[in-house]
Here is the input.
Amino acid sequence: MLASRGPALGTALWRAAPGGPFASFHCSARRRRPARVAVVLSGCGVYDGTEIHEASAILVHLSRGGAEVQMYAPDVPQMHVIDHSKGQPAEAESRNVLVESARIARGKIASLAKLTTADHDAVIFPGGFGAAKNLSTFAVDGKDCKVNREVERVLKDFHKAGKPIGLCCISPVLAAKVLSGAEVTVGHEEEEGGKWPYAGTAGAIKELGGKHCVKEVTISFPVNFHVERQFSNVLLQ
Here is the structure.
């Protein structure tokens, strides 16, 4: 389960085969090598790309756990560019998702087309509206959205391989659309005094064919990157 602090809580929980490829990464087992984790970005900035706070939290905790991280992003144009000081579209601007994501990755990033399950033990998608605008068309088309073909390939490949998939904030809609019957959460299904401002997304997840689970915010300070034999379980502050 992947959990992040904030009102829009996104998680995905995938069952792994007992004794599977990540059994050796349990914190109580001796590791032969560090866990290799792919992080998929969608731009740079909460309103038109990756939520930078979420991406940073993920990277910090993976680093603390000794994981080897490689960042990826699709090499495609952004849906649009938002002036974050005004919260409004910058009509005259256009940007590339990979180029913008490189800001967060400090340049160490690759095209999503190069991401393979053979090279990684898990994949994590931070949140931010880029997941609904650049990795998919959910922000515009809702339940009728389309998912970027490379994003769809990655999700299906990791699911087929039984490897952990982490999804933050709004990004669980990607799994709900691509993986039939996926069990995900965006927190609660009803807004409660401003605590769950995106609770309506739970209904969209159901319309996409996913299963929504009501979850509270989970905060943890793991010492080691931790992957159970039965479930993937990465807890982020």
Summary: Confidence is low (pLDDT under 50) at residues 1-29, 221-237. The radius of gyration is 17 Å. The longest strand covers residues 68-73.
